[in-house]
Write a structure and sequence with these properties.
The protein has a five-stranded mixed sheet, with no helix packed on it. A five-stranded mixed sheet has the order 17-16-15-19-20. It folds into three domains: 251 residues, no CATH class; 165 residues, Rossmann fold; 120 residues, Archaeosine Trna-guanine Transglycosylase, Chain: A, domain 4, CATH 2.30.130. By secondary structure, it is of the alpha/beta class. The chain is globular. It is 27% helix and 22% strand. A hairpin with a 6-residue loop joins strand 5 and strand 6.
Length: 591
């Protein structure tokens, strides 16, 4: 069956099925039974399933309604598999040794995931994986999230189906967790009970509006929600849609929390992004965003891996965020900069859900892309995060003074003295700005804060960006910044090594920089197969091996037979390598 990755966000994918040049259908999509074909288009439901239990163990078959198999001339493919014995998830330590068959249609259970070593074979590349006991796992805390996370990473090219648990209400959530195929079992149960299954859960009809339960109405609801989910994947807004939908059910909130916890513990950086399109936004409109893996990854980096630019580690100035991103372009921050002047103090913004955002990283993902209500109200969780991150920043560095203009009342019981310049006034009020200016002026004298030339400040910022987006910034030793804003350039003597791209929020390396970056091991590497001329992008067909420590959008050095031949940018995070359908990385430079 032909597959092409059209768009992805974390573990969710929009995959084109069939001919790569003109897909006949897309995931997420539906699997229906033979009695439900009428009124449901193949574009919405390209597969028919049938289970035969007349003999034990039973068999499961899956048939395409479209021409999805090469040469895309006849309807197909069709698969069938013999099912093994499925024990309840509560008997997870038991191994019945009758796990079922392997092949293009692979049926698994919780026990099989735990006990069948055949699933570890690199030769096993199923087209569709069916989690037979998904309904039972959904009722046990954390088990569904764990099983899906394992399956999605192990079988990155396979379509995943969890029978009997999908509905328009949890379609976004299950897709976010990695499920590609969805069936109508819950919908038909609601229909038999004369209840509508909507995108906010099951409910009774509203008779005053002549609403009624019907097959046509349910298909309409599914179609509308499927469109919402597919569009959200394309636009990079699926997480926001998930957070909207899960609040209708405590159980869905639990599933999202368990999924976030597993991803945060096990996958960084393999499911995350490092550089995103300028249109991508992180909308922090609810408390669930605090546990979004992208947010937690930033918090962990700031708490354990971040260090301020060299020379900016004497005085820390805490400032409030702004609605406009990057902050430096906002009216309020223009006024802050006027009050602070040109100093070597380190400016850090206090915000939610990211906690702390240094001035030197405010122009990159996700700091330059998040959207949060700016009411000035803080939850206890937000205050705790900001306090813990500030404490960690102070403990790991040698700040001599903190000037707090953020408006957040932070614990000042540590050894580093705090000066609160905000008081009860607005951050941009004349009184508050006067106190800020006076505190900075005094700090200049007492802590010997020097002014910085603009090119020197930019180099410090670009090195900080490199430490976040690359393995290290050591390749930048001895380089200088030149050119004109906003596309500043980085030079080695007269040779251009990189250019700042404000739309990407990243440094774009030149060909001349690649040997230097390789020498300093500052980027992950991928190796192509010998004997193949690299003409286009990176695909499974020409990939030999790859480093694991990269994120979606990150730069990758391309080597062949041990020789550096170019640079590529990861189209998908490393969790889906090497078997993801379609392009793995886009070629950028060829030497």
């Amino acid at each position: 069956m032909g597959q092409t990755l059209m768009a992805n966000q974390r573990l969710a994918r929009l995959v084109g099925l069939g001919d790569r040049t003109q897909p006949a259908a897309y995931t997420p999509c539906m699997v229906i039974d033979e009695g439900s074909i009428e009124g449901i288009s193949p574009a919405l439901a390209p597969f028919i399933h049938k289970q035969d239990n007349s003999n034990l163990p039973g068999t499961l078959s899956l048939h395409s309604r479209l021409a999805l198999a090469i040469p895309f001339e006849e309807t197909g493919p069709s698969w069938s598999t013999r099912l093994g014995h499925v024990l309840p998830p509560s008997m997870e330590d038991a191994d019945n040794s009758e796990h079922g068959e392997t092949g293009p249609l692979l049926a698994v259970s919780w026990q099989r995931l735990r006990h069948d070593s055949v699933l570890l074979s690199e030769e096993l590349k199923p087209q569709v994986v069916v989690l037979l006991d998904a309904l039972q796992l959904a009722g046990r805390p954390g088990k569904l999230a764990e099983a899906l996370f394992v399956l999605r990473k192990r079988f990155s090219s396979s379509l995943i189906w969890c029978p009997a648990i999908s509905g328009p209400d949890n379609l976004a959530l299950l897709t976010w967790m990695g499920v590609d195929l969805h069936d109508l079992a819950r919908t038909w149960q609601c229909e038999a009970s004369r209840v509508l299954l909507t995108n906010s859960g099951p409910r009774l009809c509203e008779e005053t509006l002549d609403e009624e339960v019907s097959r046509e109405r349910h298909v309409e609801i599914w179609t509308q929600e499927m469109a919402c989910v597919r569009r959200a994947i394309r636009d990079g807004t699926l997480r926001e849609l998930v957070e909207q939908r899960v609040i209708s059910s405590p159980r869905m909130v639990e599933h999202l929390r368990y999924h976030d916890a597993i991803v945060n513990q096990q996958s960084t950086p393999s499911t995350l992004s490092v550089v995103v399109p300028p249109s991508r936004a992180l909308r922090a409109h609810g408390s669930a965003t605090l546990q979004d893996p992208e947010v937690v990854d930033w918090v962990n980096f700031m708490s354990t891996g971040y260090s301020p630019p060299s020379g900016l580690d004497k005085v820390l100035i805490l400032l409030p965020c702004s609605e406009r991103k990057p902050y430096r372009d906002s009216r309020s921050h223009h006024r802050f900069r006027e009050a602070i002047g040109n100093t070597s103090a380190h400016e850090v913004m206090v915000t939610s859900p990211l906690g702390l955002v240094p001035r030197d990283l405010e122009r990159i993902w996700p700091a330059a892309h998040y959207d949060v209500p700016t009411t000035g109200d803080w939850s206890a969780d937000e205050i705790n995060r900001i306090t813990e991150m500030t404490s960690s920043l102070l403990q790991r560095n040698q700040y001599e003074l903190v000037i707090n203009h953020s408006g957040v009342d932070l614990d000042t019981t540590g050894e580093v003295p705090f000066i609160n310049t905000r008081g009860d006034a607005s951050a941009t009020s004349k009184e508050a700005l006067s106190r800020l200016s006076e505190a900075v002026s005094t700090a200049k004298e007492e802590h010997v804060l020097e002014g910085l030339a603009n090119h020197h400040r930019l180099m410090l910022e670009f090195r900080s960006v490199a430490r976040r987006q690359m393995r290290s910034d050591t390749w930048m030793d001895g380089l200088r910044v030149g050119g004109k804003p906003p596309r500043w350039k980085v030079y080695d003597g007269q040779t251009q090594m990189a250019q700042w791209l404000p739309d990407r929020g990243a440094l774009s390396l030149t060909k001349a920089a690649l040997p230097r970056v390789l020498e300093h091991s500052s980027l992950p590497c991928i190796h192509l197969k010998k004997g193949l001329e690299w003409k286009g992008d990176v695909f499974t067909s020409n990939l030999l091996s790859f480093d694991l420590d990269f994120k979606e959008g990150g730069d990758l050095l391309v080597l062949q037979d041990g020789v550096l031949i170019g640079l590529a940018r990861a189209s998908i995070a490393s969790w889906a390598w090497p078997d993801s359908p379609g392009r793995l990385a886009k070629g950028h430079h060829r030497l």
